Amino acid sequence: MCLREDDKDTSYRFTLTIEKFGCEAITRSIEIVGNEGGTISVNCNNLSEIQDIYIKIESLSNKSTECNMTHDFAKILASEESSDVTLVTGDGTEFKAHTFVLSARSVAEVMKEMLNYLYTDRKIPNQMAAPLYTAANKYALLHLQDMCEQALIETMDVASVADTLRFADLHGNERLKTKAITFIARNIKTVTDTESWKNLRQTDHQLCMDVLEEVAKQHF
After folding, report:
1. What Gene Ontology terms describe where this protein resides (cellular component) (predicted)?
2. Distant-in-sequence, close-in-space partners of 22: CB < 8 Å, separation ≥ 6
3. CA-CA distance, 86 to 81, in Å (whole number)?
4. Alpha-carbon torsion (120, 168, 1, 10), positive or negative
């Protein structure tokens, strides 16, 4: 299990199954608080008679995961540079937001657009491409999924391409991921000045390394 250095005070709970082939499995519920150097040590009593053991982590819950996600989305909200929609209140106050987040939160709107596609086969709104892709993936609507993927590719821009890269990686879409990496590499100087890239740099070092490898291929 890989833990970050800043998770020292994090509490982890998981089920540990220890078994010897041909013997009844022994299951323990373990809770661990903190870690040193990314290593977890578990002390199990009364297991001296077991040899050639097989250890399996059944499930793991990290109490900090939800907080980390909330923190990441808070940074995205604060990023006006990569926003693509403005909400205006009755008194004229403006709030910069992101269509892909608002759409993802609006299940009714996503369902409406998905039904419109199923009944009419009409072109999808570009701003709904990300949440519709998620819905299409869930319900195995391959043609709709392809349409959403193409819309995300055609509408890539400097401000939000890092978000598109993260989205592609999350959904395991290698074609979209490759397109996003290539786009970023070609526009590396401007993309790295955006808030969406700065957020990606703080949250996913591997994706940033993938981009740097592509930059090296293109420029060296």
Report:
1. nucleus
2. none
3. 12
4. negative
Q: Output the tens digit of pLDDT for each of the chain's 220 residues.
A: 444 444 444 444 544 444 444 444 444 444 444 444 444 444 554 444 444 444 444 444 444 444 555 666 666 666 665 667 676 777 878 777 766 666 555 677 788 888 888 888 888 899 899 999 999 998 899 999 999 999 999 999 999 999 999 999 999 999 999 999 999 999 999 999 999 999 999 999 999 999 999 999 887 7
pTM exceeds 0.85: no
CA–CA separation, 178 vs 194, rounded Å?
20
- Rounded Cα–Cα distance for residues 16 and 4 (Å): 21
CA distance 87 to 209: 35
Q: Which amino acid is at 50?
A: I
Q: Are strands 54-62 and 11-19 parallel, antiparallel or unpaired?
A: antiparallel
Indicate the domain borders of the chain.
5-63, 77-219
